[in-house]
Amino acid sequence: MTQDKMIPILRWVGSKKRIIDQIIDNIPKEFNNYYEPFLGSAIVFINMKCNNKIYLNDYNKDVMNIYNLVKNEPDKLIEKLEYYCKNYIKNENMEKKKEEYLHRRTLLNNFKNIYSNDKDAPHPMEVSLSRAALYIYINKTCFNGFMQFNKEDNNTSGFGQIMNPKFYKENQIYNLSKVLQNVTLENKDYKDIVINAQKGDFIYMDPPYVPDDITQCTIKYNKKGWTIEDYIEMVNIFKQLDNKGCYVMLSNSDCKFIRDNFENKYNIKKISIHRGLGRTLDKRSVKHELIIKNY
User: Fold this and answer.
1) What CATH number corresponds to the domain at position 266?
2) 230, 167: one domain
3) Per residue in 203-225, pLDDT tens?
4) Is the distance from CB of 156 to CB of 203 less than 8 angstroms?
5) pLDDT range class, residue 2, cuts 50, 70, 90
6) Does residue 223 form part of some domain?
7) Radius of gyration of the chain (CA)
8) Same structural domain, 21 and 74
């Protein structure tokens, strides 16, 4: 991959930023439509090429609210970001920054469950824009970009003590808006998205990782997290898509469960990545994960 990379607008735990070249290099040379059911930071989508239909999905309503607003209301989103972020940059005192952070986090929690992509709920666009801008604000100033929510759906992310966060760049938002114009955006269970894929389509799956055999580390992207039954279902869906004649690529941890379910039939590539999260320093070092392909 030699072209200039586009930069995501969100920090994302589990992002493929450090290995994006390897991901892109393993995409099929030719395919029909593209499906990405676990969108996250969208770093794969924004750095790949597809001339056909594109279907992007994430179960996280805040994430898809942001992408819908970037697509349809970039000017208004930039205006809201400027409103919420300008004082943090101007303030040089870290304690004052923390006070503002906690205030903004409270505001985010006050705007619960109001999204631009929720077609059934009446809501003012201004509130939806505020929710999106505040989510980005917290994402850029919290610890490690880890957006943590409790059982009441309140954000509890700790302050990251970041002096000069890169909240946003206008050209970054406008460029993303441009590439999203002919894209279908969904906020559903991933199974409801990939079921529509047909022979010749390409699906990139980056679901929650199976806890690896060494650190036993995984990240909960929703309140419940995934169970072993969810991982088994994910394996079965991969195989169903393979049987349909789709091209499927999966990212996941280098662990016994993944190898036992994929090693004998599919192509497995082991890649190195620096893991930034872990309970101790020895677990925050260079580790390995897997790319599994059926082609």
Assistant:
1) 3.40.50.150
2) no
3) 999 999 998 765 555 555 555 68
4) no
5) very low
6) yes
7) 19
8) no
Secondary structure letter of residue 223 according to DSSP:
S
Token pair 């004052």 is found at 96
Element (DSSP H or E) covering residue 229:
helix 228-243
Distance from C-alpha of 213 to C-alpha of 270, rounded to nearest angstrom: 15
Question: Which of 293, 247, 248 minimizes the C-alpha distance to 270?
Answer: 293
**Total domain count for the chain?**
2
At residue 287, the pLDDT reads 80
What's the confidence (pLDDT) of residue 202?
98
- Closest to 246 (Cα-Cα) out of 277, 187, 205: 205
Angle at which helices 61-72 and 170-180 pack, to 10 degrees? 90
Q: Is residue 181 part of a domain?
A: no
Residues spanned by the domain of 241: 17-59+188-293
Tell me the whole-structure pTM to 2 decimals: 0.90
Pairing of strands 202-205, 183-186: unpaired
With H, G, I as helix, E, B as strand and everything else as coil, classify residue 161: coil
Distance CA 49, CA 71 (A): 18
DSSP state of 189: -
In this structure, which amino acid lies at residue 46? I
Q: Is residue 121 part of a domain?
A: yes
Q: What is the spatial distance between Cα 39 and Cα 44, in angstroms, rounded to a whole number?
A: 8
Burial of 223 (0-12, 13-18, 19+ CB in 10 A): exposed
**Average pLDDT over every residue of 176-201:** 97
Q: What is the pLDDT of residues 221-239, one digit of tens each?
A: 555 689 999 999 999 999 9
Closest listed residue to residue 14, CA positions, set 45, 43, 47: 43
Distance CA 274, CA 19 (A): 9
Q: What is the domain-level CATH number for residue 68?
A: 1.10.1020.10
The span from the CA of 44 to the CA of 58, in Å, is 14
